[in-house]
Structure prediction request, 173 residues.
Amino acid sequence: MATKLALVVTLFLVSCAVSKGRSLKFSTKQLDRYSFPPDFSFGVGSSAYQYEGAVAEGGRTQSIWDNFTHAYPERTNMDNGDIAVDFYHRYKDDIKLIKEMNMDTFRFSISWSRILPSGKLSDGVNNEGIQFYKNLIDEILKNGIKPFVTIYHWDIPQALEDEYGGFLSPRIM
Prediction:
C-alpha cells in the first residue's frame, strides 16, 4: 500500500513540475455550425427497423429482427420494431423537424422486407414499398435536404435467413 501511495505522490509531483509555468487555457468559444468548414454537412440518420414501424403494412414481410425480437423479447428489453416511432406514417412530420433543425442531410436505410418481401428480385418487388421510399425521397428533396441511403442495415428478410442462412451463404447475393 505504501508503494502505491508513493507512486501516486511521485506521479503527482512530476506532473506538477512538468506543467510549472504553463497555464491551462480553455476556449470559451462555443462549438457551432460555423466551427466547421463551409461545405461540411450536418445531418441526422435512422434505421428502417428501429424507426419505420408498420411491420405488417404496405406489403412488408418479416425481417430477421422481427423474428429475433419476438422470439427473445427478454434480450431486447421487451422492445420490438412493430410500431417504433411510426415513421412510416409520420415521415412528413419528421422531415419537417429535420428541416427546422437546419440539417443538410438525412441518412436512412431501406428495409429489404418492404421492397423485396421474399428477399429475391426474381420474385418481384413490392410496388407499395417502392412507392413509400419514392415518396420519402421526394419529401426530403422538397425540403432542401440531401438524402443518403443505406441499402443494408442488418435487417434482411427472414425468408433469406431461412433459405440461405443469411450472409453465411454466398448465394444470398
